[in-house]
Design goal:
Layout lengths: L1 E7 L2 E6 L9 E10 L2 H9 L1 E2 L2 E2 L4 E2 L3 E9 L14 E4 L2 E2 L5 H4 L10 E2 L16 E5 L3 E3 L6 H4 L2 H14 L6 E5 L3 H13 L3 E6 L2 H9 L4 E4 L12 E6 L4 H10 E9 L12 H6 L3 E4 L6 H10 L8 E6 L3 H9 L6 E5 L13
Parallel strand pairs: 13-14, 13-16, 14-15, 16-17, 17-18, 19-20
Antiparallel strand pairs: 1-2, 1-6, 3-7, 3-11, 3-20, 4-5, 7-8, 8-12, 9-10
Helix pairs in contact: 4-5, 4-9
Length: about 350
Amino acid sequence: MHACVVHGAGDLRVEERPYAGPAPGEIAVAVALGGICGSDLHYYHRGRVGDFAVSEPMVLGHEVVGHVAALGPGVDGPAAPATGTAVAIHPATPCGVCPECARGRRNICAHTRYLGSAAHTPHVQGGFAQFITVPADQIRPLPPGLSLRRAVLAEPLSVALHAVRRAGEVRGKRVLVTGAGPIGCLVVAALRHGGATEIVVSDLHDEPLRIATEVGATATVRADRAGDPAWAGVFDVAVEASGAPAGLRSCVERVRRGGTVVMLGLLPPGEIGLLGNVAVTRELELRGAFRFDTEFDEALSLLGQGLPVEPVVTHTFPLERSVAAFDTAQDRTVASKVLLDLSDGRGGSPTEGT
């Protein structure tokens, strides 16, 4: 099979990889589509995500959907999906025994193995390959009528749903979202679903703000235009989705006294400046949001019900053009979520133009 493999900073290759089929308790999936995530871009451009550095060749990708190709020994019974079933893959394998897992917070399990992650060595190989095998309990058959092209957003939508859950009750609230990348825009869709009354989104580029409006933002503002009237007033909740220190500063400055700031975007490594005194004197609540757990099933359900997220997907490239796909995804003036088509002509999988 062929796969999209990172070897280090700036070194991305499409190369052949062995495929052995599913082991006991596993299911093999013929991957149809994969979404390029910000962490994939970091591995490609920087060779690392935060403290996790690439030290060996690694297949990228953790936002993948496709069709069941084979069932491993021991995967049977009425709940086992039939060959050819359209499925999404939950990318996380938490340990299940640590204190965090026992408390129902499996998304922050320190021992989680996540598709396409260099957090451990050997690295966990990802899903940008024509076939992938995973434990059977990570497989989710798609709701009836849900297309693969919509289902591929389940993983990033899960991240957004978890961030909104960390914010607490948002119904009737005025919310600021800093950063209108794919995750920021999906946060907007999740906030609208949650009943937020006003959703103001900031970004440095016009195209992401246009997409944010299409998925539910009530107002947008260029982050480099301090005098824009959309900044006026205070916010009940702020979600930092840009990963930029300036975005976090905007959230802390503009949320009301006693308000909540959800820190979702991964900031640059090392120490950053923080308006600590503002957080103290206004008794702000700063809450981290990392990955997700059961939100994956909720995301698939919402996508099946028609949650309006289509504008987030802007480009699709075939696997052999992976470098072009990654370069396009890096250009936020033109692209939001960029997909890789790994179907290679297999039936039942879409082929889109760029």
